[in-house]
Amino acid sequence: MALIVQKYGGTSVGSADRIRAVAARIARRVQAGDRLVVVVSAMGDTTDELLALAREMTDAPEERELDLLLSTGEIVSSTLLAMALKHSGHPALALSGAQAGIGTDRRYGRARILKVDPQRIEAALAAGNVVIVAGFQGTTEELDVTTLGRGGSDTTAVALAAALKAERCEIYTDVDGIYTADPRIEPAASKLEAVSYEEMLELASYGAKVMHPRAVELGAVFNVPILVASSFSEAPGTLIGGASMMEQRNKVTGIAADTDVARITVRGVPDQPGIAARLFEPLAEAGISVDTIVQNASVERLTDLTFTVARAEMERALQIVRPVAAAIGAPEALADTHLAKVSVVGAGMQSGPGYASRMFRTLYEAGINIELITTSEIRITCLIDGEKVPVAVRALHKAFELEG
Amino acid sequence: MALIVQKYGGTSVGSADRIRAVAARIARRVQAGDRLVVVVSAMGDTTDELLALAREMTDAPEERELDLLLSTGEIVSSTLLAMALKHSGHPALALSGAQAGIGTDRRYGRARILKVDPQRIEAALAAGNVVIVAGFQGTTEELDVTTLGRGGSDTTAVALAAALKAERCEIYTDVDGIYTADPRIEPAASKLEAVSYEEMLELASYGAKVMHPRAVELGAVFNVPILVASSFSEAPGTLIGGASMMEQRNKVTGIAADTDVARITVRGVPDQPGIAARLFEPLAEAGISVDTIVQNASVERLTDLTFTVARAEMERALQIVRPVAAAIGAPEALADTHLAKVSVVGAGMQSGPGYASRMFRTLYEAGINIELITTSEIRITCLIDGEKVPVAVRALHKAFELEG
Q1: Fewer CB within 10 Å, N side or C side of chain A?
Q2: Do B94 and A65 touch (CB under 8 A)?
């Protein structure tokens, strides 16, 4: 009678037929003896359609109302899945985020889960129900509905697994696991049976679209084993954080690539204390995630400051950065979108030298120029020309001997 | 600074353009100095589309999940209207039924409002907001979402007007008021400036589709003046219960017709005490509204029992009645849908004789057979052949001198 939290993404519940298929999968697990809490995303393009409706009303929808609007998408899919389950003879209860006890702060559109009160879910499980929870949403103390932003439904699932002390959180999506590289780019990429939280975090943060780093982070904090697998097949998937990582078969786990990169450069920044804070604090307040910050060497007490953001955030970031740049006397802020990141990730790298030099040499031999380099303990990332990503990934996959 | 509760129906908010038009109407009222609470239905066919999705899952959707599903329709329209208002510079707050403090019992699909806690609405009004409330829904003490069933959004509006002690409740719909007869049947029908609650109740119960009797009843109990008017024009509408009814200009207010009638006849019912209760109690428990009950004179201690229900309820009513009929020894239960009701309604009728005979003679002279008669203090209703409704309405409208 293992307690499992499952999560099905928007594609997996994208139509009436697919919802029925998900119900059938759940039913088999229930018959096998598991107790299930199931988190669902909104059906297919529902969220985009609701956003389009909002944009028909106003260019800048109020965040509180937008969250209340968007939260309906997951309520629709969760109630339909509960109906499909009951139709097949399995007691089920659909809960909104509020009903499921998911309490958040008031940061609409990117709320953080503050607490999970699992009483109602536990009572429903004890009564023999499969509990279906609308993902991506929670509620403030004032009963205002919030949405969790990117990776929201994954985060709901991992948070519930932690609060319920579930044996495992299973993320079902349209890919069947984590690969040593994107199989669409490198056909020789092989599926990983297991990765550590840290490796998954780096892979996810640096372009592996399978799972949002935020949910991985939460899993790491609460030590929730997370299985990523396909909702369309019975293939085994990849287990994050569950298996012993004592013996690394390979010091490099995989190659990640991220083409969703916009680079912003502020030219002629006075080299004074406090300038970086003045630039980056307003970006953080606006919820814009910044990475790969590089400050070039100072020439005549002026420096160029470069950082990257997601492409969708570029315009908003520029609107915030330009007045600050003007106020501190920097003559211009430029942006471009032709770059991409490739990263080599592996928990084994921290104990071994030579990984960075092997990466740089491989890219050089493939005729690829490196524009920027950043590293973590278990990752090396290079910014390169976006069009060179496929060549770079295949060359690195080969150089680090990742073929299956 | 009058406090007004308005309600806009599904057609009035059926598209982005229409929502903007409603926002513009509201804005004009706010500029004129009124404080507004606005209840909205779901956009156009949303509720039917959600129902269709549910039916794709199962023939008999669980009522609790169905209510949670259907409640999303009004949340979508209320958030969009709030966005449109804010876009035009008018502070607005959208509230779900739960957030608006609408507490109901647990009868899913046809919940009754038990209490309204208006604190949050009052605070939002005091802060200068137009408050937009998702109609048709409420919440149980356990935070489960309920829907109010037929006439739900009208009922939400009248209940809020009562709880907030609003000056008036304004129901905006696709007709511009209450007429002496359906203008599509009788072009000479004229709009009524005012009607009493009792007259409106009879008109609504007997076929005037403008407003559900349940909301009228609530208005009568709490003495809330209700204006029914068009959301597409500035025509003045009809005021229910607000004006003095001391001097009736005309003892007959209007002619109502209802073609949504199914007749069920149970043949050969033993004429014993308690039999009627055994038949009608299970119908009431199933939430099926029964009217026009007639029991024919007993022959050899056997009688025929006839009643009418809405056509959509006929199959369900038969499924309930047939086993009871068999159990009490009645040989058959029959149903047909070819009948309709025409009614003459008027508060002045109770004090004057001759109305019934004038109605029967008018129908006789128009060649229309009367199958059943029922009366109240201010209404006389005849069941006639459904195809004869237009002829009957025109004849009665003329006989009772209702031409404008």
Answers
A1: N
A2: yes
Facing B57 at nearest CB: one of A58, A71, A80: A80
Is B55 found in the same domain as B153?
yes
CA closest to A16 among chain B residues: B56
Print the domain residue range for A273.
262-336
Tokens linked to B339: 């009948």
**Residue A359 belongs to a domain:** no
Residue A57 and residue B20: Cβ atoms within 8 Å? yes
Closest CA to B176 of B190, B162, B187: B190
Of A174, A190, A221, the one marking the end of a domain is A174
- Choose among B61, B86, B145: nearest Cβ to A83: B61
Contacts of B133 in chain A (CB under 8 A): none
Judged by CB atoms closer than 8 Å, whether chains meet at B69 and A57 is answered as: no
B284: in domain = yes
Residues A168, A53, single domain; the answer is: yes
Q: Domain for residue B126, yes or no? A: yes
B54, B71, B83: residue with CB nearest A61: B83
Write down which residue in B319, B336, B353 finishes a domain. B336
Q: How many domains does chain B have?
A: 2
Taking CA atoms, what residue in B is nearest to A19? B57
Task: Return the pLDDT at B124.
Answer: 97
Distance from the A260 Cα atom to the nearest Cα atom in chain B, whole angstroms:
30
Q: What is the mean pLDDT of chain B?
A: 90
pLDDT score recorded for residue A245: 53
**Residue A106's domain is classified under what CATH number?**
3.40.1160.10
Report if residue B114 sits inside a domain.
yes
Q: For residue range A324-369, list pLDDT tens digits in order.
A: 999 988 889 999 999 999 999 987 776 666 788 888 889 999 999 8
Q: What is the pTM of this model?
A: 0.80
Residue A311 is part of a domain; what is its CATH number?
3.30.2130.10
To test the contact with chain B by mutation, choose from A20, A59, A62, A108 the residue with the greatest count of B C-beta atoms within 10 A, namely A62
In tens, the pLDDT along B362-388 reads 999 999 988 888 777 788 888 899 999
From chain A, the residues in CB contact with B61 under 8 A are 83
Closest chain B CA to residue A70: B76
DSSP collapsed to 3 states, chain A: CCEEEEEECCCCCCCHHHHHHHHHHHHHHHHCCCEEEEEECCCCCHHHHHHHHHHHHCCCCCHHHHHHHHHHHHHHHHHHHHHHHHHCCCCEEEECCCCCCEEECCCCCCCCEEEECCHHHHHHHHCCCEEEEECCEEECCCCCEEECCCCHHHHHHHHHHHHCCCCEEEEEECCCCCECCCCCCCCCCCECCEECHHHHHHHHHCCCCCCCHHHHHHHHHHCCCEEEEECCCCCCCEEECCCCCCCCCCCCCEEEEECCCEEEEEEEEECCCCHHHHHHHHHHHCCCCCEEEEECCCECCEEEEEEEECHHHHHHHHHHHHHHHHHCCCCEEEEECCEEEEEEECHHHHHCCCHHHHHHHHHHHCCCCCCEEEEECCEEEEEEEHHHHHHHHHHHHHHCCCCC
Distance from CA of B137 to the nearest CA of A (A): 14
Q: Is B76's CB within 8 Å of A50's CB? A: yes
pLDDT digit string, tens, across residues B215-263? 998 999 899 999 999 988 888 899 998 655 555 556 788 999 999 899 9
Please indicate whether, in this complex, the C-beta atoms of A62 and B86 are within 8 angstroms of each other: yes
CA distance A403 to B21: 61
Q: How far is B251 from chain A (nearest CA, A)?
A: 48
| Domain co-membership, B164 together with B266 | no
